[in-house]
Design goal:
By secondary structure, this protein is of the alpha/beta class. It has helices spanning 19-32, 42-46, 50-61, 82-107, 120-124, 132-144, 158-164, 170-186, 198-207, and strands spanning 7-12, 37-41, 63-65, 72-74, 113-117, 150-154, 191-193, 231-232. It has one domain (7-232): Rossmann fold (3-Layer(aba) Sandwich). It contains nine helices and eight strands. The two termini are 26 Å apart.
Length: 235
């Protein structure tokens, strides 16, 4: 890199879409090529009072089974009562403001790539923007948030994702996917990665990296090589 400005790369999508797999693969590949990589987990490193929010959500909403033989399903972000949506929306604004500050600081470090595991977009999709006021607020959050250099939405079949990670009701997973795909109308810069094998998804991601950081000659590195140390962001 010549300008020493870290490129922000974000991964969003429904649970079970394969974000962790792709983030790990991309991080190892870039590190092997000599790029300096910082990884940030949005919920742990950016979200305001994340542990308290998670604890209250778990105690208040708990888990439930859809049948006697089904796995224990989570019962938190799929709940959309008006008061929960209001409280969450307020927190999302604080998350967004903290993200702006963190992104500005991370870009100034000596890292070449800052890879986010989830982003503010994963919060925005939890707001049901059916009323004009809600839609206006969602647009405000999207405008405040720093636009990533490469913002990926990993698309996946809700049925397949549920099979890999059965945490939320399947009906919610379908609704969740539609919300993610609808984000492209709000943030046209987002890149939807079509479902495919792990290797096929990897190739799509590499092709959209900013400034062609990983050339086609380096694509093989995504599937081979020992694990390399990766810088981790800390609060």
């Amino acid at each position: 890199m010549t300008d020493h400005v870290g490129r922000i790369v974000t991964f969003s999508g429904i649970d079970g879409a394969g974000k962790s797999t792709q983030i790990e693969s991309l991080s190892k590949s870039l590190s092997k090529q000599g790029f300096r990589v910082v990884r940030v987990t949005f919920w742990d490193d950016i979200a305001v009072l994340s542990r308290i929010r998670a604890s209250i959500s778990l105690r208040t909403l708990g888990n439930k089974r859809s049948s006697d033989h089904s796995p224990l399903l989570r019962n938190d972000k799929n709940v959309h009562t008006w008061y929960l949506t209001l409280v969450r929306s307020i927190f999302y604004l604080f998350d967004c403001l903290r993200l702006r500050r963190a992104a500005r600081q991370l870009r100034k470090t000596n890292s070449d790539f800052v890879i986010f595991d989830r982003y503010i977009y994963d919060q925005i999709v939890q707001i049901r923007a059916r009323h004009w006021l809600a839609r206006t607020y969602v647009r405000l959050l999207a405008a405040i948030a720093p636009t990533p250099d490469a913002g990926f939405i990993l698309d996946a079949s809700p049925d397949d994702a549920f099979g890999r990670k059965p945490e939320y009701p399947l009906a919610f997973m379908h609704e969740y996917r539609r919300a993610f795909l609808g984000l492209t109308r709000l943030v046209p810069e987002l890149i939807v990665i079509a479902p495919g094998s792990i290797a096929e998804v990897q190739q799509q991601i590499v092709a959209h990296l900013p400034h062609n950081a990983a050339s086609s000659s380096n694509n093989a590195a995504l599937n081979s090589g020992p694990r390399t140390p990766i810088l981790s962001n800390s609060r």
